[in-house]
Known about the structure:
The chain is α+β, with helices and mostly antiparallel strands. The protein has two domains: 9-50, no CATH class; 62-149, 2-Layer Sandwich (Alpha-Beta Plaits). It has four helices and four strands. The protein has a four-stranded antiparallel β-sheet with strand order 2-3-1-4. Strand 2 (101-106) and strand 3 form a beta hairpin. The protein is elongated.
Amino acid sequence: xxxxxxxxxxxxxxxxxxxxxxxxxxxxxxxxxxxxxxxxxxxxxxxxxxxxxxxxxxxxxxxxxxxxxxxxxxxxxxxxxxxxxxxxxxxxxxxxxxxxxxxxxxxxxxxxxxxxxxxxxxxxxxxxxxxxxxxxxxxxxxxxxxxxxx
Length: 150
């Protein structure tokens, strides 16, 4: 059994000290990290960057509701299908940044759906915009749980 007492000695100093019959440890780290490890400073994470304001992206409290999304990709279970689903979402978000992209794996298929539409009419309207922009030719509107902002 071994008891370690550290008075004025820091943790990093302690683990780097030479002890007969044992190996040595050398720690190379930034002084800020050294202060954090030794309890001299407390880490305070920076605030997350505020989401940029885009037209059509609502702000406020987010709740779930039954609604519609536009399915722009439906594929198999391979890594290539995953990549295709992500690419489909990237194509849509490049031209329509106001639409949220949801790329998920629902066994055994990868799928990519976009948007949070409360009514079928809203979803159909965006579907025609996607098709006219030739972003998602085979896209369809599907019922889904969506996010509604209040």
